[in-house]
Write a structure and sequence with these properties.
The protein is mainly α. The chain has 22 helices and four strands. Helix 19 packs antiparallel against helix 20. This is FRIGIDA-like protein.
């Protein structure tokens, strides 16, 4: 390209010499001709010079365009190099994160294997559903001797009470219960016995998933946890031992319990459950723990998955039920019902992020939330309705920020604008709450410094600190006899002696009254708060 440009430039430079040669030839022709040709030569010369100028101008334009193209090409190459370097850096970072996760997973597996190998009942075998003890109990289970005794005695009622009393140590209990189950004659039967109180016989199931009854809610949570602990124990057994625990009689009984629970789930509303139904979770966990999934229709189970999608165990529960291949349909149902956060969590859990891009789903979720709030918010919205809309927006923003942080999406979806909006809403909420709170009455304090006397001999003082005694709030005013008030003029205008100064005292009845301050102003106590 550069050689062509140089050849064109050299040709253009030689045009002047060519014109001069042409002029000489034209002069010789004119000398041999009888007619003068001066006028025609000038026209030809102007024509050739015009062509020369036009060619040079066009040539310079082409040179400028070529330089501009080369500049753009160089910038594009630099941009490509930068993007290539950025992609390589991201790939390297992703590989490092993946390696860290792999190492942590391997470490967790090795720790679990070590803990299992050092179980309290080592090399135990299960025959006909009974755990045979071949070793002493580890110190970990000795920390809960009562738990071990309850499992050995097959006391499901006592086991429920023990879990309820130790709910603060739920994490450690969940590690110890599978080990303690080995002391039971049949762990599966013990867990089935513990399910009897899930639906009280004397009353119908309470509404709102049992949340109105705290005791029933605690019982159901314990039932779910015991079934999960049984699944942990069963996962550590070989095939023959597993068949001994989950015998046909045990499966038949579990199927009967599940058949009794199934009709009670028909009244559950997916929107009302909000992905956190404890009843649906317990039913699905029962099917998974006792391996009776095949006795129920798959479509009925898929309808229950959105009711438990917000629970921590949802993904593992779906795998245990063999519903992994059906997850795209479940995610579609969640998206159609506006549950984008649950959909993103399941997409990550089952490796469906290419089919369901998480960033697009989260942005769509916030867009729909803002649109619904703006459409449902009239101009004359009451403060209560306005607060409700703001609270919904605040909840949605916090859910999106948490989802982004959990799945490490900060590079693709920066959360700074979302956090800024969260701070604005929380600040407005706090200011409004502060403005609506009734002002607390404050006692008038006397002006000037007042001496403080501490009484450490007060026997009725239970705080352990000395009681501070403030002297009389309004001390007596003493009229001083100043020197400049004497003399003959002032003596002529002498007044009768002044009466003694008046003191401020309170009657015992008034001092004992609780609605009076020390300055004699009455204090109207605010009405007591209203309890729902």
């Amino acid at each position: 390209m550069m050689e062509d440009t140089r050849s064109v430039a050299s040709l253009m430079d030689s045009t002047s010499s060519k014109i001069q040669q042409l002029q000489k030839a034209f002069a010789e022709l004119e000398s041999q001709s009888a007619v003068t040709l001066n006028l025609k030569w000038k026209e030809l010369e102007e024509h050739f010079h015009g062509l020369e100028r036009s060619l040079k101008r066009r040539f310079h334009e082409l040179e400028d365009q070529e330089k501009e193209y080369e500049t753009k090409t160089r910038k594009a190459q630099e941009l490509l190099e930068k993007k290539k370097a950025a992609v390589e850096a991201k790939e390297k970072a992703s590989l490092e994160r993946l390696q860290k996760k792999r190492d942590s997973a391997v470490f967790a597996i090795n720790s679990a294997l070590d803990k299992y190998n050092n179980a309290p009942i080592a090399d135990g075998s299960i025959t006909d559903g009974t755990v045979q003890e071949d070793a002493e109990i580890s110190p970990q289970v000795k920390a809960y001797p009562e738990l071990l005794k309850l499992c050995k005695d097959m006391d499901s009622t006592g086991l429920h009470k023990f879990v309820s009393d130790n709910r603060k140590n739920l994490a450690s209990l969940k590690e110890e219960i599978p080990l303690a189950f080995k002391a039971a004659a049949n762990p599966a039967t013990l867990v089935l016995d513990s399910l009897e109180g899930f639906y009280p016989i004397e009353s119908s199931p309470p509404p709102s998933d049992g949340k109105k009854d705290a005791n029933l809610l605690g019982t159901r949570r314990t039932c779910v946890m015991l079934m999960e602990c049984l699944s942990i124990l069963l996962s550590r057994l070989d095939r023959s031992s597993l068949a001994g625990v989950l015998s046909e009689n045990v499966k038949r009984r579990a199927k009967a319990i599940a058949g009794g629970w199934n009709p009670l789930l028909e009244g559950l509303d997916m929107d009302a459950c909000n992905g956190n139904s404890l009843e649906a979770h317990a039913f699905l966990q029962l099917l998974a723990s006792f391996a009776v999934v095949k006795d129920f229709k798959e479509d009925e189970l898929l309808k229950l998955i959105p009711m438990v999608s917000r629970r921590r165990q949802a993904a593992e529960l779906c795998r245990s039920l063999g519903l992994s291949e059906k997850m795209p349909g479940v995610i579609e149902v969640l998206l159609n019902s506006g549950r984008h956060i649950d959909a993103v969590n399941l997409a990550f859990a089952f490796g469906l992020t290419e089919q369901f891009p998480p960033v697009e789903l989260l942005k769509s979720y916030l867009t729909e939330a803002k649109r619904s709030s703006s459409q449902g918010r009239p101009d004359n919205t009451s403060p209560a309705v306005q607060d409700e809309f703001n609270e919904r927006e605040l909840t949605g923003l916090k859910a999106v920020v948490k989802c982004v942080e959990v799945h490490n999406l900060e590079e693709h979806y920066p959360v700074e604008p979302l956090e800024k909006r969260i701070l604005e809403l929380e600040k407005a909420k706090a200011e409004k709450k502060k403005a609506t709170e009734p002002a607390k009455p404050q006692t008038k304090r006397p002006r000037g410094a007042q001496p403080r006397v501490t009484d450490n001999n007060n026997n009725n003082n239970k705080t352990g600190y000395g009681r501070v005694i403030i002297p009389e709030r309004y001390p007596r005013y003493v009229y001083d006899n100043r020197p400049f008030l004497t003399g003959p003029i002032m003596a002529a205008q002498a007044h009768p002696p002044l009466p003694p100064p008046q003191t401020y005292t309170f009657s015992p009845a008034a001092a004992a009254h609780g609605n009076f301050y020390g300055n004699c102003y009455q204090y109207q106590a605010p009405p007591p708060p209203y309890f729902h």
